[in-house]
Design a protein that fits this description.
TIM Barrel; 10 helices; Pol/histidinol_Pase-like; 9 strands; three-stranded parallel beta sheet; EC 3.1.3.48; six-stranded parallel beta sheet; 38% helix; Caps_polysacc_synth_CpsB/CapC; 270 residues; protein-tyrosine-phosphatase; alpha/beta; hydrolase
Length: 270
């Protein structure tokens, strides 16, 4: 499986505090069936001043540590990008990383306050050639009163990413309810772990895969944790599934539950 949202890089944000924790997170992810992981530390002006340069360095350093520890987890550069007025320019200049240098990036609104002109910012990003992936909308406290904003962002072209723990109910009743609602409406493009540690918000997608498979069918659950993430890392064009919920989805090759990932990722470089 491919995990597009993690805070596994040590010492860059509120995720892993050190290399030992990062290695344990990697071991847990691999044991659960994750083979590829995007490293996506927070980029929050004034709080987490991360950017492409230091994130790339941190990924390379962790890759070396994984090789020394013989942990078979492929890493990719990315970021969990907080909204900012100059974000289109920051992405265009390459100061903030997209996922594996693709058109796709993790787009994180504030958790507790719906910011003004959020849809306008999303439109500017899309017009600049980027595809925002709206991170964990089910966990945003403002979703209760503003679910229509999520619907409109999806129609504009934003992909939807759920947190695995929300899908299985570990983030509480509200997050679970909105995960179920988004899955039921056919709006979910990606499930990712958003892991922050080996004990707190552990990595792993298999339980969420099982829940999504029961809710949406195994083919569509596979799309959420393998096929679409691989397309994103390879910068292949994707339309949000929510824009056409009745469209026929491609079926995975008949190669087993998570087989064929090497073929899917052909041409993808870390």
């Amino acid at each position: 499986m491919i995990d597009l949202h993690s805070h596994i890089l040590p010492g860059l944000d509120d995720g892993s505090p050190n290399i030992a924790e990062s290695l344990e997170m990697a071991r847990l992810a691999v044991a659960d069936g994750t083979t590829h992981m995007a490293c996506t530390p927070h980029v929050v002006p004034g709080m987490y001043e991360n950017g492409t340069e230091n994130i790339v360095r941190a990924v390379h350093s962790l890759e070396q540590a994984l090789r020394r520890a013989d942990i078979p987890l492929a890493l990719y550069v990315g970021a969990d990008v907080h909204i900012a007025p100059d974000l289109p320019n920051q992405l265009t200049l390459g100061k903030v990383p997209t996922l594996n240098r693709s058109r796709y990036f993790l787009f994180e609104p504030p958790h507790h306050v719906l910011p003004p002109r959020l849809e306008e910012l999303a439109m500017r990003l899309i017009e600049a050639g980027f595809v925002p992936i709206l991170t964990h909308p089910e966990r945003l406290t403002w979703i209760k009163a503003n679910y229509d904003v999520v619907e409109r962002l999806n129609r504009l072209g934003c992909l939807i990413q759920l947190t695995a723990d929300s899908v299985v109910g570990a983030f509480g009743r509200t997050a679970h309810y909105y995960s179920e609602k988004l899955l039921g409406e056919g709006r979910v493009d990606i499930i990712a772990s958003d892991t922050h540690g080996a004990k707190r918000r552990r990595p792993g997608l298999s339980q969420a895969f099982d829940v999504a498979a029961k809710r949406c069918g195994e083919d569509e659950a596979y799309n959420m944790v393998v096929r679409r993430p691989s397309d994103i890392l390879a910068n292949r064009p994707l339309e949000p599934v929510g824009k056409s919920t009745f469209a026929k989805m491609p079926s995975p090759d008949k190669v087993g539950r998570f087989g064929g990932i090497g073929r899917l990722l052909k041409g993808v470089s870390s």
